[in-house]
Amino acid sequence: MTGQTPDAGASVEAIFREERGRLLAALVRRFGDLDLAEEVASEAIEAALVHWPVSGVPPKPGAWLMTTARRRAVDRLRRDRAYAARLAVLQVEADRAGPAPAADADGELPDERLQLFFTCAHPALPAEDRVALTLRCLAGLTTPEVARAFLLPTATMAKRIVRAKKKIREARIPFRVPGADELPSRLPGVLQVIYSIFTEGYAASSGPDLQRLELAEEAVRLARILRRLLPGEREVAGLLGLMLLVHARRAARIGPDGELVLLDDQDRRRWDPAMIEEGQGLVVVALTGGPPGLYGVQAAISALHDEAADVATTDWPQIVALYDVLLVLAPSPVIALNRAVAVAMRDGPEAGLALLDSLAGEPRLRGYHPYATARADLLQRLGRLGEAADAYREALACAGTEPERAHLRRRLRACEAPPVPDGLDRDGTATSADGPDGGWTAPVPDGPDGA
């Protein structure tokens, strides 16, 4: 923008990032139309980019943006009577939720993002549409940015977002927070959307990179917003704690050349101690005052990993016990897989392999490379190298990112290499006597699915 200094541009960008979700939520609440709200919110930001570098950032930027956007919306409705008539019908639905709150005494924009969370994550929308809409509306990513996050063409992602908005409009999905009787059934959907964003960011499903940290950090930011809006919900605390405890390891998960570094081999001095401490505090909140929840238990597992000095001294019996709790809360072959790895760490590779083989018929694990990788490693540790090589090839066929594939190729080569003298690993290094099974240390999964 002509005349705009770099500092002014950065200031506007930071304010936009903080205020956009609140602005959009307030506009949707007032006008009952997500498309209109997005358009006038963008126009208000464009106006800010023109005026603020000259006149300065106003004391209440959110209120300034809201006033500007509201005027643009009113002007547009006056020009388009048919559009206004359609919105009048939609407004009836919005009015049922009660009058829109006004700015507070300090002129601050009311925070109605909680309504927007539940609108974007409504169960009437397909799961992939909920994630896309949440990133677009609450995270403030552009449609091309959302598309890049999931390695999809922009046109495909645009259709997905348009489809979601159309569904909201045509199904008359209300812009409101569910009542106390609905909240327990609706909140898990919101949490799952945020966790899906984090999972894709922390452990990318495909592409050249192992992580997409900007996406993981956006999920953490969304969870922080939700925690502020629902401070009494223990599972919100559990989700934020889980993500912080996993995200604290981000710098140690990748080597100098972008290669995958397993939990066993990570330099724990590179873990983020402040993030771990915050996550540990949230685990206490999540597990206090009632039955444990899905995210609280997963956060407790991650806390045990983060508290240990190394893999060998990790409290594997407690981790197995927590996976037992998870299997009761949410029976899943993926949770059973991760429990099997923990059992292998506690009881040895034969015990873990028996559990993995019992899961062989699970449809969800077909094409799920962590399952084939875990089997391959246990077979390799047991000296069954031909079977291990076959399992590594199976994992290679379905691994999504290049760092994962490179790691699997290295493991496969180790299985195919000539025998080495006793007392040495296949890479020629001495085995450790401190592992749970005479020097065996499995490649412990690291990340949301294996926390």
UniProtKB/TrEMBL annotation:
The keyword Transcription regulation applies. Keywords: Sigma factor, Transcription, Transcription regulation. Residues 186-283 form the DUF6596 domain. Residues 120-168 form the RNA polymerase sigma factor 70 region 4 type domain. The keyword Transcription applies. Belongs to the sigma-70 factor family. ECF subfamily. This is RNA polymerase sigma factor.
